[in-house]
Amino acid sequence: MRRKPFRLQWNIPILCLTLFFLPALFRMAIPPYANAAQRDQPTRSIVVAPEYTGVILPRGESLSVGLVVTNRGRSPENIDLSLPEVPKGWKARIQGHRFEVTGLHVAADTTQNLTFRAEPDPDLPPGTYLFPIQARSEDGKLHAATRLRVTINPKGTETPDRDVIVSTSYPVLQGPTDAEFEFSVDVENRMDQDTDFNLSARGPERWEIRFKPAYEEKLISSLRIKAGQSRSMTVTVRPHPSAGPGEYPIQLNVGAEQAHAETEFTVVLAGTHRLQMGTADGRLSLNAHQGKPARISIYLKNSGSAPLHNIRFLSFKPENWNLTFEPQEVETLGPEDFQQVEATVTPAEQALVGDYSVTLSARGENVSEDLELRVTVRASTVWGWVGIGIIFLVILGLVFLFIRLGRR
Q: What does pTM read for this prediction?
């Protein structure tokens, strides 16, 4: 019998239903990843930064620089903005679309763009002027600060960075102390000749600052740029392990014999989160009796550089066992601080004699630590005394029998 050739037949109704439900299936798969990213997001965090941290102006010109206010937390924030100290001879303000702004509402994980404006007096002498900018949450618990450096040159002179432009899209990066921060920098050569630019940076003591070409791993100390072109590079910053939480400025200098320019980055350290858990004598074993509580002292140590908050205790134990902690929660544990916790283990009444594994767990906002104990369950001493009493009664009975039988 001759077989018919196989042909793929499309079922139009099934195909339509598949295309209709396919986007819904993708939407169902996305939330777990979104939730995981939300868990890594800090509870509350705000950042304020100007678009350019250093500006050079000819004498007599006014200044207008973008100002970025970011809420990196998981809840909306009302943020107050202020200029705590305006240099003498300047008038400065923070402006929205048409109005002067002293505060704004920023939704969770979003950014608002404002404008920093400053007008110098006509007779303002040349020099460098610093404009500190501060941001504070409405309840006063969050603070962020930055500064803008403005250099006024005499009118008619060439500005040092007119022939070379250094720019970055993200001048402020935030993370833990043990992270490596990478700033993407664009250097533009506006001169009419190819130029070798030397690279240097100034940061906190014992910090590691290196330069690399974009998308390459080799280290460089200079950058050759053709006339009228630009090149990208990466500035990697590794903080010293002992650096505490705070804001740290990094000064980048790009220079040649004919021209030079500089810019400033800011590294915001949240500190490191490390928790140690153990016992005072180092022993991880405990003796207990059936149905009887046994106590053991454990300690917690914050070995990081950032405070730890809301440390709760959990346990993984055999069925029908009871385990309690005193205190049940540690609200705050500062860097290098200790906290003693008393754990009470009560085996079940029906627990068999032998060794058991019990895990004590401490969970904080950014840390977790486990401690495994070996609990040896022994028989109750009451039965031991009962056995001794029975033996004693048996011996007395035998003595009594020997005495009576001996008289006969």
A: 0.43
